[in-house]
Amino acid sequence: MFSSDTKKLKDINTTNVSTIIGEGTIIQGDIVYEGGLHVDGRVVGNVTAEADSGATLTLSKMGSIQGCVKVPIMVIDGEVQGDVVASERVQLIANSRITGNVQYNLIEMEVGAEVNGQLVRQHDEQSKVPHVETQESTHDELS
Questions:
Q1: Are the CB atoms for 18 and 37 separated by under 8 Å?
Q2: With contact defined as beta carbons under 8 Å apart, do 89 and 75 qualify?
Q3: Any idea what DSSP says for residue 53?
Q4: Are 35 and 20 in contact (CB under 8 A)?
C-alpha cells in the first residue's frame, strides 16, 4: 500500500493516515482534509488543510497533483504541477518533481529532488509584523 520510500520518513508521523487515494485513482476537484492524506493516484485540483491543524500530505513516487497544495506538513516523492505552501515543513524525496513555487518554514531536500520554481522561506515573525515599504533615495534627491 505505501511505497518503500516512506520508510525513510522517521521524523514525520505518517502513521495517522485517514485518507488514501490509491494508484490508478483520479480525483478531479479540490480536496480539503484533516489528519493524514496519502496519494498514490492522481489529483487534478487543489489540496488544502488548515495551517495550524498538523495535517500531513504524503505523495508517493506513483502519485501526482495538478493544482496548488497548501498543507502544514508534506512529504513529496511524486510530481506536483502548481505552487506548494507548507506552513510547517516540507520534505522532498529523491523522486519529487515540483513545477511551481515552494513556500516553506522548514525544508529538507534529498539528492535528486527537483524544483522548477522559487524556494521562498516563510518566517513566523513576518506574518505578525506588517510589511513596510521603503523608498530608495535617488541621486537627485541627495543633492
A1: yes
A2: no
A3: S
A4: no
In a domain, 21, yes or no: yes
Overall number of domains in the chain:
1
Q: pTM score > 0.70 for this model? A: yes
Query: Residue 98 is inside which H or E element, if any?
Result: strand 97-99
Q: Which residue has the cell 522532498?
A: 92
Three-state DSSP class for 132?
A: coil
Cα–Cα distance measured from residue 43 to residue 63, given in angstroms and rounded to the nearest whole number: 8
Under 8 Å between Cβ of 100 and 120:
no
Residue 134 inside a domain? The answer is no
Residue 8 CA to residue 26 CA, distance in Å, equals 26
Which residues form the domain of 44? 4-123
Give per-residue pLDDT as tens, 50-92: 988 989 999 999 999 999 999 999 999 999 999 999 999 999 9
